[in-house]
Design goal:
Elements: E1 4-5, H1 9-19, E2 24-29, H2 34-49, E3 54-59, H3 64-69, E4 77-82, E5 85-91, H4 95-106, H5 114-117, H6 121-132, E6 137-141, H7 151-162, E7 168-171, H8 176-186, E8 193-196, E9 199-202, H9 204-213, H10 215-219, H11 226-234, E10 239-243, H12 253-263, E11 270-273, H13 278-288, E12 295-298, E13 301-304, H14 306-315, H15 318-323
Parallel strand pairs: 1-3, 2-3, 6-7, 10-11
Antiparallel strand pairs: 2-4, 4-5, 6-8, 8-9, 10-12, 12-13
């Protein structure tokens, strides 16, 4: 099956509506991003293998209403839809992960085969151990913090946010093996499940009780404040750029332009991908009193965004400012 194109809101909505209960994979792309072209090739190959799945390309900047609807801030971004509802997303050019998500979500309504059920238990346990220990505080939930897909997961997110708990998460709806395996691994039959330093704390009811008694704060690992973390990050290198993507794969036009300017200088610089850390992305706006990205820092001091860097380059001041940071 060929990859479809949603060139307008009406075209896109018609494709999604006609798909019914079939999986729809939407690639938000831009013609200036090389990684998008590569992922379009991946989509074309997947379309040949998964005839029951509808694959759609949407040029993010050409159809902004759709991009805003799905909170697409950078390209490439993939949105997975069933029955007109978003069920998952994937940010970035990760071909293996895209392939895995398509395979998992396309067959979500199919009962697992005996071959799948007989997967080696030791391998799964090893994977689960890594997952529960992949962050100091780890939440296994249905959906994502931005779009929880059950009331218990939503309440857990609200509780953790109210307690100002920093955590990572895993969407169990995107991986049936983890969803079923974790129940046995933790001897806990329901979700969400919250882990601290690789150890299960419990589900929603227990976390509620711990929060009310004050035990939750002591059970969770101590973390530095956001302000302290931001200070560490802006001083990570003598010259540090906070951007969407990285220097090899910028994921917005402004970030791509500023990378080009910096690469034309002889200065070494660090980058931080704000798309990988929502807390930093939102916190740095307030910390620096600068509402947009990219942001360039020299010796921990904000220089500015793309327009200011352009002006400094045109005036001949940029190189000397950056060199002072070396």
């Amino acid at each position: 099956m060929a990859v479809l194109e949603g060139k307008s809101v009406s075209e896109f909505e018609e494709i999604v509506s006609n798909a019914g209960s079939s999986l729809v994979v939407v690639h938000f792309w831009a013609d200036w991003a090389q990684q998008c072209a590569q992922m379009n090739d991946v989509m074309a190959e997947l379309a040949k293998e998964h005839l029951q799945v509808k694959f759609v390309k949407v040029e993010a900047e050409a159809v902004p209403d759709i991009s805003e609807r799905y909170e697409v801030a950078a390209v490439p971004t993939f949105i997975f839809i069933k029955n007109k509802q978003k069920i998952d997303r994937l940010d970035g050019a990760h071909a293996p992960e895209l392939t895995k998500k398509v395979q998992t979500l396309a067959s979500a309504a199919v009962l697992p085969s005996t071959t799948a059920a007989a997967a080696p238990k030791e391998d799964l346990n090893t994977r689960l151990k890594k997952l529960v220990s992949s962050a100091p505080v780890m939440l296994f939930m249905k959906g994502t913090p931005e779009a929880p897909r059950c009331g218990f997961s939503r309440k857990m997110i609200d509780l953790l946010s109210g307690q100002k708990v920093r955590f990572s998460y895993f969407n169990i709806l995107a991986d049936e093996e983890v969803r079923q395996g974790l129940k046995t691994f933790s001897n806990w039959p329901t979700f969400p499940q919250l882990y601290a330093n690789g150890e299960l704390l419990g589900g929603l009811d227990i976390i509620k009780e711990m929060a009310e008694s004050g035990d939750l704060a002591t059970a969770l690992p101590k973390t530095e404040t956001l302000e302290d973390r931001l200070k560490t990050l802006i001083n990570k290198g003598q010259v540090t750029l906070f951007m969407k993507g990285n220097r090899q794969e910028p994921r917005c036009g402004f970030s791509k332009q500023i990378i080009g300017i910096l690469n034309d200088t002889s200065v070494q610089y660090e980058t931080f991908d704000i798309l990988q850390d929502e807390e930093v992305r939102q916190g740095l706006k307030k910390f620096s009193n600068w509402p947009t990205y990219p942001q360039l820092y020299v010796k921990g001091e904000l220089i500015g965004g793309l327009d200011i860097v352009k002006e400094l380059k045109e005036s001949g001041e940029l190189e000397s400012i950056l060199q002072n940071g070396q």
